[in-house]
Amino acid sequence: MTLEQFPSTSPSNNISTQTKQKPSATIQNKNLIESLLYLKQNNLIQDSKSTLRFESTKEAEDSKKEDVIYAIKEKLSTTKQEITELQKSGYNLHLEGIKLIKIPLKEKIWLATLTKQDLEKIFKTLKEVNTIITPLKKENEEKIAEKERLEKLANQKTKIEATKTTTRDPSSSSTKPQSTTVATTTQEQSNKQLH
């Protein structure tokens, strides 16, 4: 047997594999850390369960920035959809739509500063709009439920009436024309007496 067939057990081989695995880089920017804590405290961002390892601090911070931007865009998109649905139902929410136009600009400001205060301004605006549309959503849902209930009742009435007309005896339907015939004959008799 040659030496090449056996794995090397020398300490130098084990050390080289250990040095290849660097510890994961962490976030160093205090403003970004404060912003992330704000989002986690208010349940606006999910805790990351993944065990991604970052090569550099910049890479780790960029990843967290993307998470924050995703949370903002998701909340903004949901709010815009709710406003659109309410506007289709006849509610005037033009001013709330204008408030949401400011969000992308505020998002860019936050990306430049990364401060908690700028992030709070974004979510404060979203919260203000949501406090206005939440009661309207509830009212609209109640209207829709009432409309569906009335339509269901109308459908039931038409089904009941349809079953009544199909179960009627054909001889019973002739009662109406007979009453009109009787009325016309009595009118003819009264006309004859006048002449």
Q: What is the CATH C level class, in words? A: Mainly Alpha
CA radius of gyration: 38 Å
Total tally of structural domains: 1
Main pleated sheet: none
**Residue share in helices?**
over 70%
Beta strands, count: 0
Structural class: mainly alpha
Beta-strand percent range: under 5%
Overall body shape: elongated
Mean pLDDT: 79
- The CATH architecture designation is Up-down Bundle
What fold name goes in the CATH topology slot?
Four Helix Bundle (Hemerythrin (Met), subunit A)
Number of helices: 7
Terminus-to-terminus distance? 143 Å
Low-confidence runs of at least 5 consecutive residues = 1-19, 177-183
In N-to-C order, the SSE pattern is HHHHHHH
Description:
The protein has 195 residues and is mainly alpha-helical. It has a single domain (23-165), classed as Four Helix Bundle (Hemerythrin (Met), subunit A) (Up-down Bundle). It contains seven helices and no strands. α3 (57-88) runs parallel beside α6. The relative contact order is 0.07.
